Amino acid sequence: METTLKGQVALVTGGTKGIGKAIADKLSAKGAQVIVTARTAPESNTNGHHFIAADLTVPEHTEVITKEILEKYRRIDIIVNNAGANLSPGGGFNTLSDEDWYKDWELNFLSVVRINKALLPIMLEQKSGSIINISTGAAKQPIWEMTMSYSSAKAALNAYSKALASELGSKGIRVNVVSPGVVKTPLMMDFIENIATSSNITVDKAFQVVMDKVGVPLGRMAEPEEIANIVAFLVSSEAKYVTGTNYSVDGGASPTV
Ligand SMILES: NC(=O)c1ccc[n+]([C@@H]2O[C@H](COP(=O)([O-])OP(=O)(O)OC[C@H]3O[C@@H](n4cnc5c(N)ncnc54)[C@H](OP(=O)(O)O)[C@@H]3O)[C@@H](O)[C@H]2O)c1
Predict the structure, then answer these.
(1) What residue's CA is closest to ligand 1, atom 2?
(2) Which of 1, 100, 124, 196 sits between 20 and 30 A of 202, alpha carbons compared?
(3) How far is the CA of 122 from the centre of ligand 1 (A)?
């Protein structure tokens, strides 16, 4: 089975750090022309990714991304909606303001809807394409004191992705979700440091609190590359009969079948 992505154009949002960078590097290594977006340009860009500066919470920036991709490549084969973050403070329902809820939903849900809506006409014209939406295990297993609004937004992303897969299957476009558990990235390290500061405990202790809370049978966090491997499989022709799924890559953390 041919697994090269040569000749394919791939967009990875948030492709400058953490999971997104690992995905961008992996798709690039498999031969794709990779476009990465983020608010800040990466310090080094050794893999020749095409960088577009964009804040996905600003609707007009989606137009900037679409215009640049269309003008330069005239096609899009793979969209990995990876940019996302838990933007709200912990503490449960009473600590969350309307603004906190909007911020989490804007980045983790609406921005994905916008990117897909802007680029799908190109995929529909091509009659082919593969979309991966990066969710989280916390969408199915929310931690009330840490992830209430973030989990809710990502759960909406899961439902939207399933609906989109059903709508687009007959048009040659596959849509899948990848749900990481805990992954060693700058985002996760910030999250742990914030817990340490707000709970007045050491970073090591905060790390243990997170690991105990999530409960990871494999006993460690994932490396970003371990998420990228699944994404690379799902966008490849080896997975051409796979759509509408939600792959947990969580070291066994999900407690349900
Ligand atoms: N790390 C984990 O344990 C974990 C677990 C489950 C799910 N996830 C999900 O995996 C995805 C990646 O997480 P990560 O841990 O790799 O995050 P990360 O290390 O913080 O990287 C996030 C990337 O997204 C970009 N980004 C952030 N906000 C943005 C915005 N408003 N507009 C455009 N780009 C933005 C960042 O660049 P700039 O800051 O320069 O914009 C960066 O490139 C997210 O969707 C997250 O919810 C992560």
Answers:
(1) 183
(2) 100
(3) 26
